[in-house]
Prior knowledge:
721 residues, alpha/beta, ten-stranded antiparallel β-sheet, six-stranded parallel β-sheet, 20 helices, 26% helix, globular, binds CIS-heme D hydroxychlorin gamma-spirolactone
Amino acid sequence: MKKSTPSTEVGNKKMDDLAPDKEIGTGEFMTTDQGLKINDDTNSLKAGERGATLLEDFILREKITHFDHERIPERIVHARGSAAHGYFQVYESMAKYTKAGFLQDPSVKTPVFTRFSTVAGSRGSTDLARDVRGFSVKFYTEEGNYDLVGNNMPVFFIQDAIKFPDLIHAVKPEPHNEIPQAASAHDTFWDFISLTPESMHMIMWAMSDRALPRSLRMMEGFGVHTFRFINAEGKSHFVKFHWKPLLGVHSVAWDEAQKISGKNSDFHRQDLWEAIETGAFPEWEFGVQLIPEEDEHKYPFDLLDPTKLVPEELVPVMRIGKMVLDRNPDNFFAETEQVAFHPGHLVPGIDFTNDPLLQGRLFSYTDTQLSRLGSPNFHEIPINRSINTVHNNQRDGHMRQQINVGKTSYHPNTTGGGCPFHAKAAEGGFTSFEERIDSRKVRARSKSFMDFFSQATLFFNSQSEAEQSHIVDALRFELGKLETPAIRERMVGILSKVSDVLAKKVAEGLGMPVPKPEEPLNHNYGADANPVDYQDQPKKQGLDKSAALSIANTVKDSIKTRQIAFLTADGVDGESVKAMKAALVAEGAQVKIIAPHGGFIKDAKGGDVKVDMSFLTAASVLFDAVFIPAGDKSVAALSGNADAVHFVNETYRHCKAIAADGNGADLLKETYVAAKLKQDKDASAGVISSDTAKGSLAKDFIAAIAQHRFWEREKKDKVPA
Ligand code: HDD
């Protein structure tokens, strides 16, 4: 039995306490929860073989009772999540800006546990919902736990935490019938949004491709609020936090997202798990935008307003370190489910600002853990433990693990020698930034928060043509699902404050004129606080567009971990398969052989080729690109196979790379792709055959996969698939 741990030993620097139990399979006997060896766990205790079960059966009762209580309440938001362990390393000391210990020494690896999530859906909902993604990092630093609880979008829907319950009630399934699950396309969400113009910037993000990540490994993260860095001299800089994925930022198409949800609702979770299992560890650079205290009022937006970002063109992102996720959790419940994040888990050197959304969050997170994890002792759950030793006078409560020794549980004391002592700042004690506050007590919002549209406009204007058309389609979809026409009209009216072009296009798709925006627009704060029309602000500010806001500008230099489908059948050219597979795998991609049936197929020379998936278990939406190897018989078989033809059409529709070796190109003739290829350059982008390849087929295919998508193919009509 594990020795109980006295208070002074809770947590230890090597994180042994986070180590899982030994895996079962090393010869142990089954026991009850009290350690009693069990000799039959298959039959309950009965009055005779055919008799009634006896109440006396404590083994049965213990097992069923435990089972009955296996679930805890799911998170009210961010219920569906996936997480991984890893480490963080700073590139060089940030002492000039912050005294945070984990940002000083490049040789120190700080352990992290990072959880990604969707917001609206329940625990069992699909990964590919159109939604914001949570991006929470727990740094287990020597100075205590630091949690950066952010999202994959840099702004938020509301400016004040007091509106958070309203926002979430509106987006969650409607209360009378619990429909729809994990979707914002319904009346209550858009009713709330259309009455909350401050949400318009975030709506642009949520309707953009950012809400449909290709992988959790391929999305940015943001701390959202403005925080403070404080250095050893007590000097403060405002700071915005960023996570930049080394694989670039990539997304899927909406049609694809919906299909993935049906084919594999664990798509993101599995992708993260498999990448780590195969050693392709996800990596993000940690970035900061630093603004000196004295520049607080230099910008045309308020740094405390969480619906605003600081354009990277105004304050560049300094990349200061790297996070690597290199270990999957051992137990989903114990780690991913029980981890408790809190924006108020700080370390010396990092502090809050008065952002009213952040201030409200500081209450919510402990409060929610009390009902979710059931006890004020949730910090003792292994995944939540600090690696710095915990000493204080907090005592008792449900499920207390620590066995506190001695009679002292108060301060000041002499009975415990005065311990635990307070730590001065020089001894690593946390001291809040001494911000001067000299103010009236008011329930109000600052006028400096009243520009609701200029950054929404900046975002829309900064998108590529394809990204803009995705936003238009997303809004047509979402508003098209509404049952109440008045909500749709109010919404399209507000969109005209963001961009006339956007409003007009959305309205066209919905078959309606663009209504005038409602007056007053601002239902929340009274007529005297009506927002100003800021549509021309970005231009006035000399920042028409921000390149960093468009994922068209992301890095596209790698095919690492990309999933490539090889469409094969009996008679496939074995050499064609082998050569392309070797070339792709050498670049870090993963190849799956797909055929009309499972097991093995025969290549043209009679050799066995192992099939990874049949057309029944595979689907084009689960892949990044398609290769059609040469082979007379196989190409003929696939050409007459509806699933294979559909596979290619759908790959084309979703703008992915397609390569055909030799007579593999004959399969294309059976698809819509053949007609498209005759159209123009845009329509044939990313479709490569041995005849059209400029370099070698493999080289061109690799370059095409790295491009991720050829959205220009969408300009003309999409192919049916
Ligand atoms: Fe929150 C969870 C991110 C505003 C109240 N939030 C939660 C998680 C993330 C965020 C990533 C999941 C943590 C995990 O993986 O366990 N939340 C944000 C961001 C916000 C934000 C980036 C705005 C910038 N949140 C916000 C407000 C409130 C909350 C304004 C309440 C006033 N959030 C919660 C919560 C949750 C939570 C109810 C649910 C589960 C949990 O905390 O542990 O307390």
